[in-house]
């Protein structure tokens, strides 16, 4: 069996593959690690055939949809998953065939309604249902402490006690434990009585995960994260450094149009000498009158360098083949003590 555990902060992803057939599945992949997973699969001599999320994640960005697009393989989740891009929806007890391996799904609602664990050979991927020394929380959308109690005590913990437990999270650098170790040592499993367990889960008072709104929006819909949009724009745009622009401004080069895409008050507070104002929000509507020559070299700049990247990508999409973005923004320009013009440019 090919097996890799990939940690991203506290999130754990797993690559599991069959030695004989070289078919592999990737469990709970995270968006920032796409190249890492594909490289690991190549190094291990397996081909990723399935992308599996153990549940709708609220704390990180799932890579399943993007990897499915890149690799042309199906996304698998439990049938209760709200995500419209899921290709194969598993019900309790169903299996995914992976060469000679069999991944058996156990529906274990509680952390979320669509949580499932996956058992294969000597191990079980427990998602956020069971963590090492903890359990998933039950206060996020579709969480339910009574269901988690049921899923744990009447299902997961009744599996073979020797099974290795591989959770979707561990914040202390541990790789795995076993069902027996969790039954013996996991503090949350010591409250075996249902009402006590529910009371404990309801009084944890955990802080909300960072990015929860964006994670739920993108993981449930298949929509893009802001970082993903920005990375896609960055990949299509050339950049110019602050120092290079300063040299060109000082040389009074006139083949470059510096386009400041901030709002008017920010522009008038201080802009690159000679820069024109065209706020990002008006770009598409005013571009034909403001920039009649699509062959001109245009450099977009903004406060931090993000919006200008999106603006330059939009300009290139619209046919401005020589649009570039400033690597950095006006904040860094000011902090470098580079020349500024205030008020309206003549
Ligand atoms: Fe989770």
Automatic annotation (TrEMBL):
Residues 252-342 form the Rhodanese domain. InterPro entries: Metallo-B-lactamas (IPR001279), Mito_Persulfide_Diox (IPR051682), POD-like_MBL-fold (IPR044528), Rhodanese-like_dom (IPR001763), Rhodanese-like_dom_sf (IPR036873), RibonucZ/Hydroxyglut_hydro (IPR036866), Thiosulphate_STrfase_CS (IPR001307). Keywords: Metal-binding. CDD domains: POD-like_MBL-fold, RHOD. The keyword Metal-binding applies. It comes from the Bacteria. SMART domains: Lactamase_B (SM00849), RHOD (SM00450). PANTHER family: PERSULFIDE DIOXYGENASE ETHE1, PERSULFIDE DIOXYGENASE ETHE1, MITOCHONDRIAL. This is MBL fold metallo-hydrolase. It comes from Variovorax robiniae.
């Amino acid at each position: 069996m090919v097996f890799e555990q990939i940690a991203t902060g506290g999130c754990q992803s797993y690559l599991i593959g069959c030695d004989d057939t070289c078919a592999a599945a990737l469990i709970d992949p995270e968006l920032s690690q796409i190249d890492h997973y594909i490289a690991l699969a190549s190094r291990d001599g397996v081909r990723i055939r399935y992308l599996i999320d153990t549940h709708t994640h609220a704390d990180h960005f799932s890579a399943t949809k993007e990897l499915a697009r890149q690799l042309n393989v199906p996304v698998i989740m439990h049938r209760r998953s709200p995500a419209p891009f899921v290709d194969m929806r598993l019900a309790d007890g169903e299996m995914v065939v992976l060469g000679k391996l069999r991944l058996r799904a156990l529906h274990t609602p509680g952390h979320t309604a669509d949580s499932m664990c996956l058992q294969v050979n000597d191990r079980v991927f427990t998602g956020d249902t069971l963590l090492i020394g903890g359990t998933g929380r039950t206060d996020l959308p579709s969480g339910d402490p009574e269901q988690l109690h049921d899923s744990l005590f009447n299902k997961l913990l009744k599996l073979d006690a020797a099974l290795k437990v591989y959770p979707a999270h561990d914040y202390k650098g541990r790789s795995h434990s076993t069902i027996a170790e969790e039954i013996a040592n996991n503090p949350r499993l010591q409250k075996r009585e249902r009402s006590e367990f529910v009371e404990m889960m309801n009084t944890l008072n955990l802080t909300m995960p960072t990015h929860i709104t964006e994670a739920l929006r993108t993981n449930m819909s298949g929509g893009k994260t802001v970082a993903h949009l920005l990375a896609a724009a960055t990949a299509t745009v050339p950049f110019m450094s602050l120092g290079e622009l300063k040299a060109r401004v000082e040389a009074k080069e006139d083949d470059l149009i510096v386009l400041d895409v901030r709002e008017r008050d920010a522009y008038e507070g201080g802009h690159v000498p000679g820069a024109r104002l065209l706020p990002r929000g008006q770009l598409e509507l005013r571009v034909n009158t403001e920039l009649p020559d699509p062959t001109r070299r245009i450099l977009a700049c903004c406060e931090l360098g993000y919006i200008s990247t999106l603006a330059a990508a939009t300009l290139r999409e619209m046919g401005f083949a020589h649009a570039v973005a400033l690597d950095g923004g006006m904040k860094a320009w000011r902090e470098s003590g580079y020349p500024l013009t205030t008020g309206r440019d003549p």
